[in-house]
Amino acid sequence: MTGLFGQPDPQYIGKRSAAAVETGPPRDDVVQVAVERGVDLVDGLSYLEPPGQRLAVGVRVQVPLGRKDKPTRGVVVARGCEGPAPKRLKAVLRVEPGPGLPEELVELGRWLARYYACPLGVAISAMLPAAVKQGTGGTLRRWVRLAAAREADDSGSLPRRSAQQQKLIEAAGSGDWVELAVLLDRAGVKTAGPAQKLIDNGVLQAEDRPTVRSRLVTDAAAQAERQPAIPVDKLTPGQRQAIERMTGDDAQGFGVHLLHGVTGSGKTEVYLRLIEHALSCRADGGSSDGRLDGAEHPSGGALVLVPEIALTPQTVARFVGRFDRVAVLHSGLSAAQRHAEWRRIHAGEVEIVIGARSAVFAPLPDLRLIVVDEEHDGSYKQDQAPRYHGRDVAIRRAQRLGVPIVLGSATPSLESWARSQTDRSTLHTLPERPSGWKLPKVELVDLAQERRERRGVHMVSRRLERRLREAFAADKQAVLLLNRRGFASYLACPSHACGWQLRCDHCDAAMVFHRDRKVPSGGTARCHHCDARRLVPALCPLCSRRPVLLGEGVQRVEQELETKFPGVATLRMDADTMRRAEDYRRTLDAFGRGEARILLGTQMIAKGLDYPGVSVVGVISADTALQVPDFRSAERTFQLIAQVVGRAGRGHTAGVAVVQTYHPQDPTVGLAAAQDYPAFAERELVSRRRAGLPPAGRMARVVCRHVDEDKASAMAADIAEVCRAVDAQRGLSVEVAGPAPCVLGRVSDHFRFEVRLLAAGGPEAAARLQALLADLRGRVKLVSDAGTAIDVDPVSLM
User: Fold this and answer.
1) Average pLDDT by stretches of 10, the chain with 798 residues
2) How are beta strands 326-329 and 352-355 bridged, if at all?
3) Measured between alpha carbons, how far is 714 from 703 in angstroms, rounded to an integer?
4) For residue 41, what are the CA distances in angstroms to 69, 181, 705?
5) How many helices (H) and strands (E) does the chain have?
6) CA-to-CA dists, residue 542 to 341, 445, 493, 538, 551, angstroms
7) Which of 493, 616, 495, 620 is nearest to 552 (CA)?
8) Which of 626, 637, 642, 715 lies closest to 676, judged by CA?
9) Cα torsion for 434, 436, 437, 438, to the nearest 10°?
10) Whole-model pTM?
C-alpha cells in the first residue's frame, strides 16, 4: 500500500475493542463494521452476520454499540477477521435499505482515515450524503419483469389472459426490470389489476425497490443548446499540444497533469476534449493498463470538481451543451435532489459528474478521468473531520484506479507547481488566450497617495471611477472585488486616548458592522466567527462619545456606487446575499443578460466567471489578505488578484483592470498585476524552502479547545510532550512547535491552543509525519472535533 503521491503508508497502532479479549476459532460469518460515531478505531468492529445473509463490503447496516446496545449506523468494510474471531460477538441488527458504497470507495475511506488521522467510521460516513443515509425523498415502488413461469402460461396450464394482460406481456418483452408504472403506461393499461393477476399467476416477477423522485432543475443546463466542439484549427497551439500530450500513448494509466493557463486561455475546452477522448476510448475498448481494458463499459465516465457553487451553473451549461448524461452534486441541492442524483450516479445512469468538494466521492462505477478545476482554491479543504483536501483525495482515487487526473488553474497551488517541476506530475501550459482575446491592461493605484490628494473617504479611486464611466458609456460591464463582508470592519471610539472597540463577547475578534435599513440604528454588529449579533451602542461605554465606523466592506462600496453612479444597477455577491443555489443562478443569469452593469462581490466572483461584456475589473483593496499572519498570505493574495483581473477582456474588446493598494511596491502585488505566475512561484518557493514550510515539507496541526483556558493549554502541552517523546524514540525528525495560543485564541467561548508538526524534506516527509500522528493516537485519547482537532496539510493557520 502506498500513500499520497507514491510514498509508503506508515504502520500505526490501532485500538482494539473489548470484545476481542476472548477469542475462538476462525469463523466465516464475521464482518468488520465501521460505525458512524466517533470511535477512534483504525479498523472496524467485529459483528456476526444476520442469519442466512452474506454481507458484501460496502453494505450499510445497523449494529448494537456500547453497553446499552444502542443501534448505530455503519458500513461493512471487510469480511472475516485476522486470527481467531472473538467468542462473544453481537450480531448485525439489520441491513439498511438502498445502495451502499462501492468497494473501491471503502478502500479509499481506509486511506482517508489513515492519512488525515480520523476515525475510520467518520471517514466512511463522510463519503455518503446524509440524504442517502436517511433515505430522504425515497419511497418503495414496484418493479416487474417477465418470469420463467411464462412458459407454463404459454402452454395453457394457467388461466386465460385478457387483452390488457397480453399487452402488458408484450410491453415487458425485453425481460428487463421495469417500474410497474412505466410498464402500465407503455402498454396503455390504466389500472394495476391486470398486472397483479399476472404477478399472482407467476407470469411477472415483482420486487419492491426504494426509489427517489426529485426533479432537479438546473436552468443553465436546461437552456443550454447543443454546442459543437471548437474546430481543431481554432484551438490555440497550447490547447492542441496539451490535448495531444494527455491523450497520447505515453499518457495511458495514472498520471497527474497540471494544466497551467493564463486566465481565459481555454482550459475548459481542453477538459471537454479530454472527456470526449476518455468516453470514446471506453466505448471502443483499449489496452489493459487500468484505463482502457478492452471490455464494454455501459456506465462510468468522468468526474469534474469545481471549487465554488457559484461556478456550477456556467460549468454545467458548458458540459450539458456537449454531453448527454450529466449529474450535479453540490450543497445547494435539496436533500431529496442530492439523494436522487447520488442514486443516478451509483446506478451508472450518467457519464459525467460535476460537483464541489464532496463530489470526489461520487460512486461512478467506471471512472476514467478526473478533472479538478481551479485546483488551488482553499474551498477544496474540509474544515471538519475528516479534514481532507478534495484535490489530494482526487489524486489518491485516480492513483488507485489507474486513471489520469488533470489539475487546472491560472494560479496553481505551490504544492502542485512544485510537483510539476519534478517527475511526480506533468506540466502543460496555455500561455495565450484564443485569437482576438487579449489579457487586460493592469493599472496600479497607490491608495496612500490617493488619500493625501483627495479629501474624504472613498472606496473607489479617481482612476477606477474614470474607467467605470468609460465602460458604461461604451455599454460595457464591470466586476469589482473586495474580499470583506459587511459595511465596516469594526466600530471604535473616535478618541485615541480611550481605545474602546466593539469586540465579540465570545471570540477574540472585532465585530463587523452590517448595514440594515430595517434596524433603527441602521445596522447590526456581527461576529464572523461565531455569528453572534448585537445592536450597535449609541455611545462609547467608556467615554460616552459616539462610535465611528472604520475599515471597509462590500456594503460600503455598494453605497458609494449608488452615490457616484445613480441609476446604474449593481448586483452584490457575498455570503450575506448568496444563501441558496438559486441565488447564485439568478444573480449570474441577470448579470449575463445585462440587467446590471456592475457585479460587486467577495472572493466568490474572482474565478471561473466568463462574461464577454466585462471590460473593467476593479480590485478595491489588494491588501486584505497580505497582512494575515499565515505563511500562505502572499500566495492567496497573488491568486485572488490574478484571478479577478482575468475576468476582464474575455471578448474582442480589450479590457482594463485597476488594482488599488497601499503597497504598490510589494512584489506579490506587482507580479499578480503582471500575471507572471512562474516568477512569483520561483520567488515564493525560495522563501518556503529556507523555512522548511510546505511544499518544502509537510505540516500538521493539533488544536486543543476548552472553555477553561488552563485546561486547553494543559491538553496541548501533554500532546506536545508526547510528540517530542515519540520523535526522539523513533528518530522521525519531526519538528514540534508549541504549545502556543492559536492566532484566534478564543472562538465561541472556547480557548484554543495548537501544536504544529513540521517534517522537512521530500515525499518521505509525509510518511514520517503520519507515523508520528499514528503513534500519538495510540498513546493519547484524541476525540477529533470534541476537545482536539487534527488538521493534516492545513491551508489556513487561523
Assistant:
1) 39 35 64 83 85 89 88 91 71 87 95 92 90 75 73 49 86 80 87 87 78 50 55 84 88 90 88 90 46 39 85 75 84 79 86 92 93 94 93 96 95 95 91 79 92 88 95 94 92 87 93 86 89 89 89 93 94 89 84 93 82 91 85 92 85 84 92 92 94 92 94 94 93 92 93 94 86 86 75 91
2) parallel
3) 12
4) 18, 46, 22
5) 23, 30
6) 57, 38, 9, 12, 21
7) 620
8) 642
9) 120
10) 0.85
DSSP letter assigned to residue 542: T
List C-alpha distances in Å: 630 to 411, 564, 635, 636, 669. Answer: 18, 36, 10, 10, 17
DSSP 8-state symbol, 380? G
Q: Which amino acid is at 603?
A: Q
Amino acid letter at 354? Answer: I
Q: Which residue in 5, 1, 115 sits closest to 770, CA to CA?
A: 115
Sorted by sequence, the CB contacts under 8 Å of residue 427 that are 6+ apart come out as: 258, 260, 420, 421
Alpha helices in 93-179 (DSSP H): 103-115, 120-126, 130-134, 150-154, 163-171
- Scanning the structure block, which residue is given the C-alpha cell 514550510? 693
Q: Does residue 419 contact residue 5 with C-beta atoms inside 8 Å?
A: yes
Please answer whether residues 209 and 178 qualify as being in contact, where contact means their C-beta atoms are separated by less than 8 angstroms: no
The residue written with cell numbers 454545467 in the block is 316
Q: Is the peptide bond before 739 cis (omega within 30 degrees of 0)?
A: yes
Q: Both ends of the chain: CA-CA distance in Å?
A: 34
User: What is the C-alpha separation between 167 and 671, in angstroms, rounded?
Assistant: 72
Q: What share of the chain is helix, strand, coil (3-state, %, to 5)?
A: 35, 25, 45
